[in-house]
Amino acid sequence: MRLSLVSLQRLLSTVTGVLLIAACGSEPGAVTTSSPPRATSTVTTEAQSTTTALQVVTTTTVAREDGYEDFDTGNFDESSIVIDNEWLPLLPGTQWVYEGVTIEDGEEIPHRVETAVTDLTKVIGDVGTVVIWELDYSDGQLVEAEIALFAQDVFGTVWHLGQYPEVYEDGKLVEAPAWIAGFEEARPGITMKAEPQLGTPSYSQGWGPAVDWFDRGQVTEVDQKTCVAFGCYEGVLVIDESDEPEPAFFQTKYYVRGVGNVRVGFRGPDPEQETLELVNLVQLDQGAMAQVRADVLEMEKRAFAASRDLYGQTLAMENRPVD
Questions:
Q1: Would you list the domain boundaries of the chain?
Q2: Tens digits of per-residue pLDDT, 3-29?
Q3: What is the pTM assigned to this prediction?
């Protein structure tokens, strides 16, 4: 899961987009309550009509020679919306807040990303997914918002099954393309393996040819140490991601067990040089969750209207079943 799932610059240049509009007056997702304990390490170094079945290739999750990941809906059951992968736990109500900078015309621009796990689910093909809501701010202005869909298989691997984005420029919606696994040749990809290991090949994080989505990831470091505004950590997993067939640069993400992504950096001549670090991790209260739910459902209404032939062919979101 990218923090900025598709960069604004790339989205505008390739006619691909990302998601939703902020409510007037204040930034969505800003209403939070109790914060979980910070790290204690002493390290000081750094949806509404018929659905289409997903293509089943084999029963394994080993990378194929064509670069895609084998995906079998038989590896998912009713627990697919319980995402408890130790490197990427997606508990409903969890919100990660990141701050950093990007480089535009040689100038550092403040950057903020808010990622929340909703209490909504959405069935894609025969697989239940968890709905994630991400808001991306540049210099205080919403430039990108996104509904992203994830599911965990019975082995513990977290899969990305699609996204609906809306991209904004000067407060106006400029693009709202989407890719959904099973439609327009799009395929699911792996966001986090059950047991990520150093030395393993890169893997597809999803493929949406209609919008040029073909990100790949690869484990490049393990057992690292890093400090961010929210705390210091050890045993850190590092994954390099790229959205180019033959990448010259990579987005680098740092993951911590039980926390998720805590830092984003880059490697190589990245023109945006995006850096982000975790500044807050909270559990939203009932009021904040109700607002998130309402905003996401309103966004889905726009998705059904704006993407009739794609998103409009999926089932509507539902409230997560009560345990």
A1: 8-25+33-319
A2: 443 343 433 333 333 333 333 333 333
A3: 0.82
